[in-house]
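Internal tracking record. Fields below are filled automatically when a chain is submitted to the structure queue. Please do not edit lines marked as system-generated. If the sequence contains nonstandard residues, flag them in the REMARKS field before resubmitting.
Queue: standard
Priority: normal
Entity type: single polypeptide chain
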Amino acid sequence: MTVPCSGGIFSVAYEIVNPSENGDVLAHTEADWITDFDYSVFGEVKFLVEENIGKDKRESVIFLEYEYSEGESLEFGVKIVQEAAGDLPPEPDDDPFTIEVYEIGATSAKVKTTPLDMELTYTSQLMTKADFEYQVGDVDNAQQWLRETFEYMAYSYGMTFYDFMKAFLISGVEDYPYTGLLPETEHIVFAVGLDYECNFTTEFYIGANFFTMEFTLTDLSFTMDVVPEARTAFVVTTPSDMTANYVVFPIMQSDCAGLSDEDIIQSIIDAYSMFIEVYVVYGINERNFTGLEPDTDYYALAFGFEPSAFMYTSNLHKEPFTTLNTGDPTKVTFDISADRISAYFADITVKPSDASVFYLYNVIQKSLYESYGGDKDALQRYSDELIDELYQDYVGYGYTWEEIVEQFYVAGETTFTAECLVPETEYYVWAATCDEQGVFLSEPALVPFVTEQHVPSDAYVPGIVDEYFDGYEIAEYNPLYGGYQGMVVVPIVYEPNDSAVDWCVSVFQGDVVAMYGEDDVFLSTLESSQWGQNIVGIPTFALMYDQPYTVTTIAVDEDGNYGEMYHQVYTMTKDGVAPPENVDYYFNQFMPYSGYPEELKRVMPKIMCHKEDKPDCVADTSESLDMGELPPIGKDSSGKIIKADLF
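SYSTEM-GENERATED OUTPUT FOLLOWS
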């Protein structure tokens, strides 16, 4: 067995026919650079080879001896040859590839793949042995597995299979640094020549098996300065290593009772799952914790975290602090402003005199306010009705009234954009402190404003249905287009004029313009649409056959003025469906990376594999997404309450 000069954990496999009940396998060697024999897995002996920093190769023999009481012991030897630090990679032989694994760490390794034919297009991949056995199983299944994997990746990139393979395959020598590997885990490296149709042009070559090293925590430490308020805390974190990745989180001290530091770290990782990567920082970090409980003991937590390996890398630092108590909600005043007022929107800022107190806020038409009575009780009823509307939607999922109210109130300064307003109309912005039931505790503050007159723009963007597709047919044509069976798949093609800089689209069931009028549908389109369609490409909707649908689009010019609304009623029938192969064009336009010149398309040259058998320092996210959880509710960027759909 030849091992690289960098050393690492390796293994020798053995098989015992008719083993004795009291038999033992023992390994020994005269070499002091081969140590740490591990017999924990029957049929395999692992061992550690230290790094060879010398200029000469070195070799020794590992003897495996089977001792049992019924007879003489059995023994065989395995010659271990370790390359020298100054050795060149071995010359290519008749194998299609030479694969060298070096600089093996706990979570990383470098792999150098040298093809015999430098013009060959190929792929070289690294997987855990467990993943390879689970996903591929056998070399005979490798081509089918690769084809299915590449088909999915091509779909994800929004590319044809041929174009994806052309971008994915490589030629020449590849020297690739792998990160995010699992510690103390056996990995394999394979390479195979392929053409752009995924046909093998060489044998499926498995070139190396190796074990990553044992993981050890770093000596990363932290200093933390915390300035608490009633519901927030400003934290400055300084790590001992300015290049190290780490995360910072708040946690109630009561939640840590009885937990070890390792348990606390793991609970944080489990709670945030894959989203913890969003919170990874390095260097000096300033962060404002929000949503804290007043007069409560907390810890500011910090620990090293390596996102590529999804594992923590240091001990836990806990900085204790206590939040302040809240102020008197009956004495709070509000500074409210409405700026950048247009015909359909206004920027609103609400700033309370005490940032520790919860309050409700909203925008209401003056005429509606007066119809409710025009006083504090009127706004209380209006607020209660808004809360109750959401409560009725979610009470069946176990939400309480207090939990729904919590989605409405805020503390501290709030800025949002009030959208879908009516032109030339008087409005009030109002705010009032409240308790956990949503009951006002202060007199509401009201600030009036009037929306501007609508300024017509010539920005215009029709949303055209050129052709549509049967869900069963496209799933049969390409299984990756499954999920639309029984539906009609309808792409909408935009045809904007030169004045349109952005636009939105909505699809309503029925001839809504005839039923409700163009003005109401205009406002409904603004309210229910997603902007940014100028960079989406071609959106695709799954609709029903033989039902009228109204497609509406509205464009905006560079001055923020809306143009005339396009609206058209379409009814899709089974007789009118287009050939299923035509759907590729639309899906490729809608998927990521579409619309870019070919030279700008970049494909990750590695297959991202599942991670199995995680050590204690690696988070287990296999059950982190509980599909039985209640659907989330919250506020969008404009401050409006939104409800999540169930999937």
